[in-house]
Amino acid sequence: MPDTMIGQSPIRIDGRAKVTGAARYPSDVVVPNPAWAFLVTSAIALGRITAIEEAEARAVPGVLEILTHRNMRGTVRDAGFFAAGGYAAETIRPLEDDRIWHDGQIVAMVLADSFEAAREAAFRLRVDYAAVTPAAGFGSASATTEPAAKARQGHEDPQVGDADAAFAAAPVKIEADYATPTQHHNPIELFTTTALWEGGKLVIHEPSQYVTGIRHGVATQLGLDPQQVRVESHYVGGAFGSKGSLTQRTALVAIAARRLGRPVKLVPTRDQGFTIATYRAETRQHVKLAADRDGKLQALVHEGTEVTSRPDPYKVAGTQTTARMYDCPNVRTKVTLLHADRNTPGFMRSPPEVPYMFALESAVDELAVALKLDPIELRRRNDSKKEPIKGLPWSSRGLMRCYEAGAEAFGWSRRNPEPRSMREGDWLIGWGCASTIYPTHIGAATARVTLTPDGQARVQTAAHDIGTGAYTVIAQAAAEMLGLPLEKVQVALGDSDLPPAPVAGGSNTTASVCNVVAEACGQIRARLARAAVEDGPLKGRDPASLKLVSGELRAADGTAEALPEAMSRAANGAIEAYAEYLPQGMPKESMRKLYSGKQALGGGIAEGPLAMAAFGAEFVEVRVHARTAEVRVPRVLGAFAAGRIVNPRTARSQLMGGLIWGIGSALHEETEIDHGRARYVNDNILEYLIPVNADAPKVEVMLLEETDTGVNPLGIKGLGELGNVGTNAAIANAVFHATGRRARELPIRIESLL
Amino acid sequence: MRPFTYDRADAVPAALRAAGSGASSYLAGGTTLLDLMKLDVMRPERVVDITPLASRLGGIEAGPQGLRLGALAHMSAVADDAMVRRDYPVIAESLALAASGQLRNMATLGGNVLQRTRCNYFRDVSYAACNKRRPGSGCSALDGVTRLHAVLGTSEHCIASYPGDFAQALLALDGTVELEGPQGPRRIPFAELHRLPGDTPHLETTLAPGELITGFGVPPLPWARRSVYLKVRDRESYAFAVASAAVALDLDGGRVREARIALGGVATRPWRAREAEAVLAGQVLDEAAAQRAAEAAFRDARTHGDNDFKPELGRRTLVRALFQAQRLGA
Ligand SMILES: Cc1cc2nc3c(=O)[nH]c(=O)nc-3n(C[C@H](O)[C@H](O)[C@H](O)COP(=O)(O)OP(=O)(O)OC[C@H]3O[C@@H](n4cnc5c(N)ncnc54)[C@H](O)[C@@H]3O)c2cc1C
Ligand code: SF4
């Protein structure tokens, strides 16, 4: 056994259960005698329900009940918008009245003895509407806009200096508009919910990135004590942000189970998933970038407008990141929200950075062309020690090291900078690059660690493994701190009855949870050490000098006591430690918020005292067919500096997945909207395109070493959302290099280049 | 999905008998039918499973009479057949480039040519207006998202594109369809199987109710070895064609003796581009001739906003396919 588990690459401890099917995903949970729910969703985006004809549906054998606003009004209380101190992803109360706010809103839930009967009855339910012309988004007459600073308490548009004056005065400048589309997460696992009442206690099985939040949110909606609600989500089949906040379905399934007096299972359809959960908001962005003749940035103006729903001010606001990315003395940014008749958008993997860094990193490339400067050199000349808005020093900034290592591995020096200069047969070849950044978030977290006399450790925390490898890295942290082999550590996650941990969002889990687990393990070590110095081989030593290593408590000179003996000295049985970790610099109330299921992450690049982020440089080769303009990506390479890597294997697959996601974000992913009707059209995973294997033949990940204990005691930076930032810009930049045409609107499809 | 009666037929007469009564559908690979039943778009009262007929109707035979493909042959089997790949590459490629490996292993040729449009307004019953699904209800696509809709063969009642690939290959090679029906067997040119939407877009084929496709024939055509199927799509695999072209060339030195061209992804039915073929006959195949042929093929194109780019893409696809075929050693 290696002395240090952190930094090793064990295979996932839950891998075997997953590939053998032993892992029970929430909808796999067997409950006694379930009733099945099937949703009916609205066929219009705006208006009212005028009639619901139930007779034919109720006549289907096996149908038990149909929930509509007619028998549900007043049942579900308001849980509040998650970003305004509440819990809900969208504040429309489910089945509250006859009003339709958006396409695909839940208008009825059919309950039956079988899934088939529920589905058939749902098909036979007739809902009539009085439709009003809706606003779909940009260009819709009835859409309204408001500045984010007005819509969202506490929102500040970062700015410094006088960007407009500096832009006017600068010798070299570019100005351009960029557009990014609506995107849906489409995790393979659908948005299922299973609910049952056990006595007065409600148990919910639902794939979730935030079991504590769902517990408190549902308790609020149903007027229950949070202790009466338990949310379990041990395995999650993909989430990407879509399973982070409370959606309407959960309370409905819970109420159905109470009314029927039996468990209820809901497995919505793929297309319903487009409207009953969240999505990435589309944006329109305007960027102005100016430099002196040496390429030193003088001004950045970045303005973004983002679609949200009528009731909720969801914001993307990636200007928080772009304003701080490079050393620029004059910055002005502004975010505006556009309210349309759409469901409320939400977090999707690197929510602010994916759209906004697309614009910034495209603009930087455009500026490099205007300056006739290598785009990497331009970034080098504007690298920084401090972020420019508040002057917060970077805790570490590996950006240029990533560019150097990546460029070398990619062969960047062989690139002829002239557009359309590289070609193979009918295929135009382009090479492009772009930066990635992901702020290092961290949250207050709690955990319980139990060490039993037989040398087994159990870690319990209501954190989540959404497919990222959290089970494994948390076990590694505990194994390291307790000096145990990995197989002696059990990890329990995804259960709101466990000590609370933050939402699995903002790539904070590894940092937050490993640090609290380390703290709990430290308590256990301290207790063992205090007892060991009383008597036995370690008598009289300084307890602080003793370490748990390889199954023993060991002093620096090698004197040791085996764990069983040390255990029996310290306790009669197991030793249990409960730790609370409040990251440095976070306000005390973060801990209280954690216990009440409110999302409160700290760290990042805007709060201080340090600016903390992971960085990377991404390189792509594209091929564009000279006649038919398909864009293909034969290779992509990312070099990343992301602090201490707990498990290079799982880190690599996060980053690799991110790069592939980035290919999709550049070339494939777009939820198409019928503008007249404000409805999603390609709401299935055949026509909502993501890359297939053939679209990502060669993906290389380089992990650079980085030590940064400024971010947290273990030196961990999150990286789950690092890989897929900037890839879209790198591809657009490569397409420009291949074709001489600048694609400023995503996705870049055939018709963009014909 | 709604309740239906399930029958399993192990012989052609039994299949015809079972299908004879009521609103029935044959079930082959099920990759179109079951999808559309789950979406409530197709609502057969009776489903007649014809997969047991595969032992008799699943063959791939080649000889001096040309090629005969059983209706229940799987797409993957035909795509992988060495002889089809050598002598009729356009057929093998059209199948190999379609759908995914899993689907090709399930799906049959008979079902393939009868696959329904991917028009989202057709596939989503929450849209009230769709003439194909509900005759006379209107067409939601006309003022909707039309990126994948047709530009050739449209009518004011329906602009849905025919999505399949294999049909173009059959059409280009003058294939035929063998049928069995209550009135006995018959054989028709493949070109007569699909209808234009006109004012009856719900009638997609000329099949009589209950008629069963038993197989396809392709006449002997030695120069079919110089044939290609070019599929232009939004990702490298597992996507329908944005535009495609099936091309076979009979060359006499640099000169075209005869060209066969069918277009996919751009038309309401499998589309034979005879005007383009006529332009090329007797010509030296160079850039100018190829462009003229492409112009001719799309002369009558009508677009609807999102698909404004399609005639241009269709032309380029055809030109590229022509040169690709030209480069092949026959
Ligand atoms: C995700 C996805 C991607 C796809 N991509 C492509 C693609 O890229 N290119 C492409 O060409 N296709 C594609 N397809 C379509 C696929 O090729 C067809 O669904 C398949 O070929 C249909 O064959 P089947 O045997 O499954 O037909 P079924 O679903 O069993 O039947 C289809 C229809 O034909 C009828 N039928 C079947 N056999 C007979 C017969 N012998 N006589 C009379 N009627 C019959 C049935 O009643 C039914 O109406 C895709 C499908 C899916 C689901
Ligand atoms: S194009 Fe055809 S299939 Fe599509 S909505 Fe119109 S009528 Fe229906």
Largest sheet of chain A: 7 strands, mixed
Indicate the low-confidence ranges of chain B by residue numbers. none
The main sheet of chain B comes to: 5 strands, antiparallel
- So, the CATH homologous superfamily of the domain at 225-325 in chain B? CO dehydrogenase flavoprotein, C-terminal domain
Q: What is the helix content of chain B? A: 25-40%
Shape of chain B: globular
Strand arrangement within the widest β-sheet of chain A reads 3-5-1-13-10-11-12
Main structural class of chain B: alpha+beta
Indicate the structural class of chain A: alpha+beta
How does this structure look, described?
Chain A: One of its GO terms (molecular function) is oxidoreductase activity. The complex is a heterodimer of chains A (754) and B (330). With 754 residues, chain A is α+β, with helices and mostly antiparallel strands. Chain A has 20 helices and 32 strands. Helices cover 27% and strands 24% of the residues of chain A. In chain A, the strands form eight sheets. Chain A has a seven-stranded mixed β-sheet. In chain A, strands 7, 8, 9, 14, 15 and 16 form a six-stranded mixed β-sheet that branches. In chain A, β11, α7 and β12 form a beta-alpha-beta unit. In chain A, α11 runs parallel beside α19 and α15 packs across α16. The longest helix of chain A has 24 residues. The relative contact order of chain A is 0.14. With 330 residues, chain B is of the alpha+beta class. Helix content of chain B is 29%, strand content 21%. Chain B has 13 helices and twelve strands. Chain B has a five-stranded antiparallel β-sheet. Chain B has a four-stranded antiparallel β-sheet with strand order 9-10-11-12, with helices on both faces. Chains A and B meet through α4 and β30 of A and α13 of B. The complex binds flavin-adenine dinucleotide and iron/sulfur cluster. Iron/sulfur cluster binds next to α9 of chain B.
